[in-house]
Structure formats: C-alpha cells, structure tokens
Amino acid sequence: MNELTCRQYPETHTDMDQLPDQLSSFYFVRHGATKPNLDGVRCGGDLDLPLTELGRAQALATAHQIRAMGIEVGLILCSSLQRTREHAAIVSRVIGNVPIAIDPMLGERHMGEWNLRSVKDTEGLLAQGMNAFDAASAGVWMHGEAGAEAGPGLIAEDLPEVLPAVTRRLYDELGIEY
After folding, report:
1. From CA 176, how far away is CA 56, in angstroms rounded?
2. Domains of the chain, start order
3. What is the distance, to the nearest Å, from the Cα of residue 88 to the centroid of all Cα atoms in its chain?
4. How much is the pLDDT for 6?
5. 36, 116 in Cβ contact below 8 A?
6. Is residue 57 a contact partner of residue 21, using CB atoms and an 8 Å limit?
7. What are the backbone dihedrals phi and psi of residue 106, each rounded to the nearest 5 degrees, phi first?
8. What's the confidence (pLDDT) of residue 166?
9. Which residues contact 65 (CB under 8 A, 6 or more apart)?
10. Which of 1, 8, 103, 131 lies in the 20 to 30 Å Cα band around 176?
11. Contact 84, 106 (CB under 8 A)
C-alpha cells in the first residue's frame, strides 16, 4: 500500500482524557479536498465523505511539509469524519506513525439544506453579516415565498422575476422604505 492509497486508519486511538496538560505548539491543518470542495459546493459535517485523489495528494504534501520543517508531532487530533481520519492517517504514516486521537467535537458544523449548494449561491447571505444558521433560514424562507409567488413549477430561472416582488412584500410588512 503506498502513501496515497492509505485507507487503513490506526486501530487504536489516544483517549482524549490522556492528553498532556500542556502542549508546546498546536498546528491546525484542514483536510484535503473532497468532491464537493472541487465542485465549488458546500459540504458540512453532516456529509461524511472521503478525500479525492487530489485530497490524498494534499495530505501527503502536508506530511512532507511537516517533515521538511522539522516539526515534531506527538499527537494528531481529528474529527470522526472520514475525510479528516483519512487525512490524519496519511500524515501519521508518513511522519512516523504518530498516534491519532479522534474527537467528534472537532467536526464541522452541519450545513443542512446548504449541503451541495454552490458557494456562490450562499455567499451573498453570509456577506450580509448573517451567521450560517440565519442565512440558511432566510434562504429557506425566500425559497418558500418565491414558490408562493410563482406557484407550482418554480425553477431557478424564475427567481429574477419573482424575488423583487417577494422583497417588496417583505419591506412593506416590516415598514422599510425602498
């Protein structure tokens, strides 16, 4: 088995209660690419997906960079998601079979209805200063209101026609001038 096809995760994992009281350094590393990452769509912690070949190559590059920088790693912490465990296993194997501790609390937030939606479609709501939950709720509300405005068979191409009416109705209800 070569470094890029590492699919076996270590059989034993360090118990989180056995971590040292003090860590001299703590490095954050994001897992390698998944298919949704490459497709430009959102992928939350409620989608447990593997790394792509590119993601495995990124994990391998991470491990080689850690080794080249002379960073001594005593423990790798990762979430319970497959993509993070796979990334951790590749890094661990390359830098000397460093123990891996899996903690579900390190998992990504759940994206719900935002999963597999394009980043472009959702970034506008986030740019308005909304947190992800409020932005997702607003997106669901707007979709429902647009559906009510357009009637059955609403498709994405209808939105530019329908959303101004929905926005005007919302502004009127809230007493916002436009």
Report:
1. 51
2. 3-106 (3.40.50.1240), 118-174 (no CATH)
3. 16
4. 40
5. yes
6. no
7. -85, 0
8. 75
9. none
10. 131
11. yes
**pLDDT tens digits for range 3-22:** 443 444 444 455 555 555 55
pTM, 2 dp:
0.60
Residue type, 23: L
Query: What φ, ψ does residue 101 adopt, rounded to 5°?
Result: -110, 130
pLDDT at 153 over 90: no
E strands within the chain? 76-78, 100-102
Closest by Cα among 48, 62, 73 to 6:
62
Amino acid at 117: R
The closest of 89, 81, 107 to 3, measured between CA atoms, is 89
Tokens of 2: 């070569």
Residue 72 has pLDDT above 70, yes or no: yes
- In this prediction, residue 147 carries a pLDDT of 67
